[in-house]
Sequence to fold (635 residues):
Amino acid sequence: MGKLTTLFQRKPKQGSIKKITNAQYVLFAVITLLGFFIAIVVNRTFPQIADVKITSYPLGIFGEVTINGFYEIILAVLIFIYLLNAVYSFFDSDRRRKFASRVPFRFVIGIAIALWDVFGTKLLLLPQPFFPGPAKILEAFLMEPAYIGQQILYSLRLFGYGFVIGVTAGVLTGILIGWFPKVYYWVHPVLRISGVIPAVAWMPFALTLFPTPFSAAVFLITICQWFTIASLTAQGIQSTPKTHFEVAKTLGAKTPYLVFRVAIPHAMPQIFTGIAVANGFTFTTLVMVEMMGQPGGLGYYINASKVWSAYYKVFAAIIVMAILFSLILKIVGLVESRVLRWQRGLVKR
Amino acid sequence: MSENTKNTSNTIHNNSSNTSGKRAANPKDAILEIEHVNRTYYDTDGNTVEALKDVSLSVRRGEFISLIGSSGCGKTTLLRLIAGLDHPEAGTLRLNGTEINGTDPQRGYVFQQGSLFPWLTIYQNIASGLKARHVYKEQKAEVAKYIELIGLNGFEKVFPHQISGGMAQRVAIARALINKPEALLLDEPMGALDSFTRADIQDKLLELWRLYQTTMILVTHDVDEAIYLSDRIVIMTPRPGKISEILEVKLSHPRDRGGEEFLAIRKKILEKLHLANASQEPEYNL
Fold:
């Protein structure tokens, strides 16, 4: 019986589920760190063949640092982070397995960075200035960290306003559409049609209607969130099983309870799906809007750098975006798994 | 064989007419009065289905009454009318002399299956009865009492999908009972459970019935269950849905499912139900 339950509970993962011994685990950790360590060694030892201007910048406690030095510091930080991760995962068999499963990927990343360094900076075999090496890209952060910081804050502020207003408006509209058939009749077709229009199409209109470029951009991001979330919220409300309402009614519930304690909790998974989908549109819109008419933001930074052919700055902005947007998705995901924790084990996730 | 059936049916008929005579004699005892109720459904093809036709029934305070019959006999429809989830086209339903109009926590309802709110824990599900009436703050202590009563201590923080079907139904019963209803309406609450769990919940129901003296109205298609639990069994027949017989079960609790009297009643009901079905196919009966 016990055997049977384990059989059904665990997903069969490639082969048998063996416990990872301490020695094996240490080896895995070493391989993980090795890739990045090789990248450092390559950067140190590989002779600079191509003629690249290696500038030095002041960097806090490190004093004057060249772009190669900064690149090595970043790699060292990565090694340190993975080392902490390795130590942290050591004490839990599930985390051990997770860490072990990522060993090949992390090792290859280290090697790939080393190759990129060789072809991008040392040999300049990649076409320049379109494909700068990793050290060159990091130069952007050494050169103007405060300026990049400002752009990040600008983008975040834009996203923050659009997100808060969009989600609020979207959920409210969705509830109204889902609950009142009259609202559904009048608003849903409008939503269907306007929902398929890419938000940036409204840009000329937004720029003339709103007093500042910032508020115009907030409007565009808001409608990205609004329509998607509204239609999914409405779906979630409408798909609430009749039994749930009947149960609540026989318990003595009145309409507010039916809306806020039955329909909305039932729609929650759909609302979060809406937010996830909308975030995808929003990131696109955010960058496009910034590239086309904002006095700041990461999109603006890309555009401004492109004009000067400073492609390493474009790459720097792309890296920042990747990290920033992933973080936003991660935070939304954390909130979601907290709110929807009742679904754990109920749905395949 | 057919002669036998006829005899039995006569006996039942006499029995039930006695019952109705008694009902008329003590109207004060009635908690629920159903008079000449009709309910017709119209399907999309424009056909009409007479779910209930001229149904009258009087339920005594504190009694355990079962509605039994084949599917389509209107037993669930009748229960939904009592709950106020549906409205009759003609006739009246009164609880304590007041006409039933819409739902009320006075009439608790336990659904077939899967009626717990999946986003609430067991504790919160039971508490939702109190919360719906805005009395949770004052009566918080009740929740723990009911969890104890249904034997689910330690499961307070668990979500419905993590417990078994039997446990879930106990929670559903507790959630309805926490509102202290005058009548508890049970719509095949044990229909989807295995026979062991079913027997377990039946005993739980009897225990709760004795404890709170709530009037219980149970819809079931399980003859044994009806006999095991009920004071009276209402046999219904379909097309149109109506009450065909009312049987009084005068056995003391706990009832022996294999006992002679038990089996005799069982036989009566089965014959009656069989007869009810057969009567729709007169060509075989003739």
Summary: Residues 278 and 285 of chain B are 7 Å apart (CA to CA).
